[in-house]
């Protein structure tokens, strides 16, 4: 008789200290956020030459702006003279150039040093060398992705690869034409939780039946606790009497024309490490960008994107926005309720994952690989 070998139902999570320890967060900043492709802003947020935004990437402030020729450039938001933070606000519009508020060194939209008090008396200053320090950028899905690494990792493997891994084909997202959709609503959430808790929560649906009554009404299979991201290529199907992806199952907005027949009436969720979630439904796309600010604080910006004709016509998108806004609040509340326990002695060895959460173990392995050496022993 051969004994049947069965996998254990429960596998461990990361130790609690991984979510609270400052040294771990510092290592994540250095080795993850400052090394990988990081989704910063929506390209369309820079609607004219001189429009700029600042974002926090790891420990660095990054300034992203549009040039006169319409290109997008990203720089470290630091004056090359004595290091003052060049742009203090989150967004603005420069008329002709960026002028440092300290001694008035002035840079053009390509980052070149073009003026400074007495500059002509210092002819040996190389204006390119003392221009703003550049940051690598890529535009994809209508977003500006920046990378602070000197040699960026492969965008195709890391970012597009995540889409391929989830949908089975990187081109399965093309029909949603995400880059050409328009912003219908943006909501910013200030979440008092570690960024990894937010990712783990997004990756599983074991909690859906408990905390997401509206979502499980629209996507009945979520009530079974099966993760939307578990099966390659699978999208959760709308319930039979559900007309659209809205808070009450009422009719949604105009369907994006390129959405394939087998994608219609389905919801797909994709996690792009380290900080992006993409949600696809037939009439809109929801994109979450996270900005981890501390071990216990993460800003999440969530964009609801619709066909330009829907946004321009002023159609009411509120029932559509409300569904995932509630999901966000329910999820982030749950994450905030977990965060304080991460430092508890009871959680020193972490918690456990049930079988429908086991795929989160791969995320934990990845974290271990990146920063495991900094997790304090207990
Ligand atoms: S620090 Fe910017 S001009 Fe001096
Ligand atoms: Fe959730």
From TrEMBL:
Q: What is this protein called?
A: Aromatic ring-hydroxylating dioxygenase subunit alpha
Keywords, sorted A to Z: 2Fe-2S, Dioxygenase, Iron, Iron-sulfur, Metal-binding, Oxidoreductase
Domain Rieske, by residue range, is 37-146
Check the record and name the PANTHER family matching this protein: CHOLINE MONOOXYGENASE, CHLOROPLASTIC
Annotated source species? Arthrobacter terricola
CDD domains linked: RHO_alpha_C_GbcA-like, Rieske_RO_Alpha_N
Name the Gene Ontology molecular function terms of this record.
Answer: 2 iron, 2 sulfur cluster binding; dioxygenase activity; iron ion binding; monooxygenase activity; oxidoreductase activity, acting on paired donors, with incorporation or reduction of molecular oxygen
* Cofactor names: Fe cation
Which InterPro entries does UniProt cross-reference here? Answer: Rieske_2Fe-2S, Rieske_2Fe-2S_sf, Ring_hydroxy_dOase_asu_C_dom, Rng_hydr_dOase-A
Domain of life, source organism: Bacteria
Asked whether the UniProt record includes Oxidoreductase among its keywords, one would answer: yes
Keyword hit for DNA repair: no
């Amino acid at each position: 008789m051969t004994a049947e070998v069965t996998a254990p139902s429960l596998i461990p999570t990361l130790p609690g200290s991984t979510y609270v320890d400052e040294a771990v967060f510092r290592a994540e900043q250095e080795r993850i956020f400052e090394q990988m492709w990081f989704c910063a802003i929506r390209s369309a947020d820079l609607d004219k030459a001189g429009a700029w935004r600042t974002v926090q990437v790891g420990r660095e402030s990054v300034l992203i702006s549009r040039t006169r020729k319409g290109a997008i450039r990203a720089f470290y938001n630091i004056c090359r003279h004595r290091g003052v933070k060049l742009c203090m606000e989150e967004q603005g519009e420069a008329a002709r150039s960026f002028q440092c508020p300290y001694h008035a060194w002035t840079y053009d939209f390509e980052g070149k040093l073009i003026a400074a008090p007495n500059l002509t008396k210092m002819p040996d200053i190389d204006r390119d060398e003392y221009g703003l320090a550049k940051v690598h950028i890529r535009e994809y899905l209508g977003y500006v992705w920046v990378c602070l690494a000197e040699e960026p990792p492969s965008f195709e493997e890391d970012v597009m690869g995540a889409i391929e891994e989830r949908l089975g084909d990187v081109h399965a997202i093309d029909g949603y034409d995400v880059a050409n959709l328009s912003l219908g609503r943006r909501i910013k959430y200030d979440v008092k939780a570690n960024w990894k808790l937010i990712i783990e929560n997004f990756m599983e649906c074991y909690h859906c039946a408990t905390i997401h009554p509206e979502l499980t009404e629209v996507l009945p299979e979520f009530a079974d606790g099966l993760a939307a991201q578990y099966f390659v290529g699978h999208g959760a199907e709308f319930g039979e009497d559900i007309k659209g992806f809205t808070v009450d199952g009422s009719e949604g907005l105009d369907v994006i024309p390129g959405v394939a027949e087998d994608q219609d009436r389905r919801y797909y969720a994709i996690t792009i490490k380290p900080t992006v979630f993409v949600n696809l439904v037939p009439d809109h796309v929801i994109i979450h960008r996270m900005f981890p600010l501390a071990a216990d604080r993460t800003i999440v910006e969530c964009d609801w994107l619709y066909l330009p004709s829907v946004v321009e016509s002023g159609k009411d998108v509120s029932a559509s926005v409300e569904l995932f806004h509630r999901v966000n609040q329910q999820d982030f509340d749950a994450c905030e309720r977990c965060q304080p326990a991460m430092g508890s002695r009871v959680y020193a060895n972490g918690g456990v994952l049930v079988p429908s959460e086991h795929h989160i173990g791969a995320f934990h392995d990845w974290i271990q690989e990146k920063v495991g050496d900094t997790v304090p022993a207990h």
